Amino acid sequence: MWPNQTRSNLGTLIHLIKGSLATGILAMPLAFKLGGLAFGLTASIAVCLLYVYCVHLLVGTSQKACRQNRIPVLGFAETAEVVFANGPPSVRPYSKLAKNYINWMLLIHSLLTTCLFQIFVASSLRDVVNNQQQIEWGTLVYVALVTIPMVFITQIRHLRYLVPFSAVANVLMITAFGITLYFLLDGDEPVSFAGRNLGPDWTQLPLFFSTVLYAIQGIRYVLPIENDMRHPQNFLGFRGVVVQAIALLTVLYNVTGFFGYLRYGDDVKATVTLNLPTENGVAESTRLLAGLAVLFSMGLCFYVPMDIIWRWLENRIPPAKRNITQISMRFGILLVLTAITMGVPDLVPFVGFAGSFCSGNLVVLIPVVLDLVFRWPTQDFGRFRWILVTDCVLAVFGAFLLVTGTYASIRNIVAIYQ
Questions:
Q1: What are the phi and psi torsion angles at 398 (to 5°)?
Q2: Measured between alpha carbons, how far is residue 406 from residues 75, 313, 349, 350, 397 in Å?
Q3: Is there a contact between 197 and 300 (Cβ–Cβ < 8 Å)?
Q4: What region holds the Amino acid transporter transmembrane domain (predicted)?
Q5: Model-level pTM greater than 0.90?
Q6: Backbone angles phi, psi at 86, to 5 degrees
Q7: CB 26: neighbour CB atoms within 10 A?
Q8: pLDDT tens readout for residues 30-69
Q9: Do residues 202 and 39 make contact, with C-beta atoms less than 8 angstroms apart?
Q10: CB 58 within 8 A of CB 79
Q11: Which of 112, 236, 303, 343 sees the fewest Cβ atoms within 10 Å?
């Protein structure tokens, strides 16, 4: 049953949830610390709605471009190339540039996320095993241990075979979320609003949005998953798979963020599971469950960058050598990423950078720009040109987030490593 499940609505829903449900949800209390309880709750819901809207823009533009050019399916970068090539004459010469730009954004985001996932899994195992076994193994030892199962998981090349991994990862992460929520709501001390900010620290606002965008980082999976559906018409729409997935994720994100900050206040850590009591075995299990969930997500995380790189290389490789080339390429890139992770084991400061620079581009700016370029020749902007106004407002917001969020993230990284 599993090999064909990816093409069903259920398989698509599982992949979409897994594409976003990872370490980002555990950082939501930190986002609420930056944004405050009231603003954080409202703004997080708004960002999730914005994400759904931008996914509809991206997928809708891709589907219309496919019909217009009689192409079966288009990926993220290919959609940009086709849209620019058929857009206003002034942008047509930049079609290849648009394609290459998106491919590089996807590569940077995916590979950086793989490193973040790897260090998260290693750190989670380190905290649990060292505490329970009373040993003092360093993080690098666990990075090496985590790399062993990753060698096999990252060799999976087809989405359909990743569905069971995504399903298991979802179960593990939701279980970890449930246990975490229990401790957030049922601690020894009652939760209190005293000393909790309701509004944002305005200087940290770009980092708030960057952290939330990083949490819903699944934009790079959207078109590959939609292209793999048996009934792609069920992907969009008010009752579509995207809305179902993001509705569930919105609840999980906001519950975790709100009660995490409410419980721990300014002491909340980058990953809320680090705030849970280490002497409690059940609390300790959340780190292990979350770490295993992310480990099972590695195949899906690796899918997008490997797909991009393989499309660059495939026609240059003789058919008889393509299989061994795929194996060697995946193994070699994993070793390079492992070396980076070992060289910079504290990758938490890079979360904001991934959210602002990569997600700000991929989630907001690029879908809006593609929608504008596609509609411009026909001026199909609706009554009173409301679509044009909406796209321009979102483009300004995306540019603001990209510039200010990236600047703030780089400042934090420089301050930490000085």
A1: -60, -40
A2: 26, 32, 11, 10, 14
A3: no
A4: 7-410
A5: no
A6: -110, 10
A7: 28
A8: 888 888 888 889 988 888 888 888 888 888 898 888 888 8
A9: no
A10: yes
A11: 343
